[in-house]
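hey
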């Protein structure tokens, strides 16, 4: 072995020995060297159990059927059959009455259909003024006797019944006469509502008489049960008397 190679081998040996000694000394000074990073473990198929299981939410309370002892809410009461609500302008069921003859202070008048109520009120006012002058009080509600009608209007006698006729007089003035109210068997009906709707009541009366087979005269009487000035006032009350044959 040449000197050069021997020096290289020795030098190499010394270098290795020195490195080994240095490594050993370093290991003694730092005994806790970090271990090599381990390979990741394979995931476990079973999940880890939690340290404390959370409380389960309270179960919904089941809906209980109503107890047989608890009454169910009452249903709205149904309308009874055969009891329709009364409507304005309808006639009541006819009532048979006997009309007595009474002294009567009245005016003869005529008016178109659209003006009949206003004309009657004007006639009644004039009769009442003449009665007041003569000191004659009325003995009942004012009435109008319809004696004739056509397509355009009516002829009527409008006035007040009297307790007694003034002795020896057949009139109170040129316009106001003294006579008697119609008398005899009649059927009484009621109209409640505006006078402008009274035709509907007369239609109902006609249908009722036809259904019952009742023969009536052509004249009839209206008795005004309350004081109403406006023909469209719905508070008007009229008693209608249909004279029978």
């Amino acid at each position: 072995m040449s000197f050069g190679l021997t020096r290289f081998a020795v030098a190499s040996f010394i270098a290795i020995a020195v490195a080994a000694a240095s490594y050993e000394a370093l290991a003694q000074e730092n005994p806790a060297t970090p271990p090599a990073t381990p390979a990741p473990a394979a995931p476990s198929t079973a999940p880890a159990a939690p340290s404390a299981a959370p409380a389960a939410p309270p179960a919904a309370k089941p809906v209980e059927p109503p107890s047989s002892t608890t009454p169910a809410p009452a249903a709205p009461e149904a309308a009874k059959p055969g009891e329709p609500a009364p409507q304005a302008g309808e006639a009541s069921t006819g009532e048979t009455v006997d009309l007595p003859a009474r002294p009567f202070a009245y005016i003869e008048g005529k008016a178109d259909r659209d003006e009949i109520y206003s004309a009657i009120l004007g006639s009644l006012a004039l009769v009442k003024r003449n009665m007041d002058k003569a000191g004659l009080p009325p003995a009942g509600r004012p009435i109008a006797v319809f004696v004739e009608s056509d397509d355009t209007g009516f002829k009527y006698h409008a006035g007040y019944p009297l307790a007694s006729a003034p002795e020896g007089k057949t009139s109170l003035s040129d316009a106001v006469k003294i006579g008697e109210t119609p008398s005899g068997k009649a059927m009484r009906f009621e109209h409640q509502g505006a006078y402008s709707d009274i035709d509907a009541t007369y239609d109902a009366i006609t249908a009722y008489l036809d259904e019952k087979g009742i023969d009536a005269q052509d004249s009839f009487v209206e008795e005004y049960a309350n004081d109403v000035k406006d023909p469209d006032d719905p508070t008007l009350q009229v008693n209608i008397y249909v004279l029978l044959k």
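The chain is about 25% helix and 25% strand. The beta strands are 95-99, 103-112, 143-149, 153-161, 177-180, 184-192, 216-224, 237-244.
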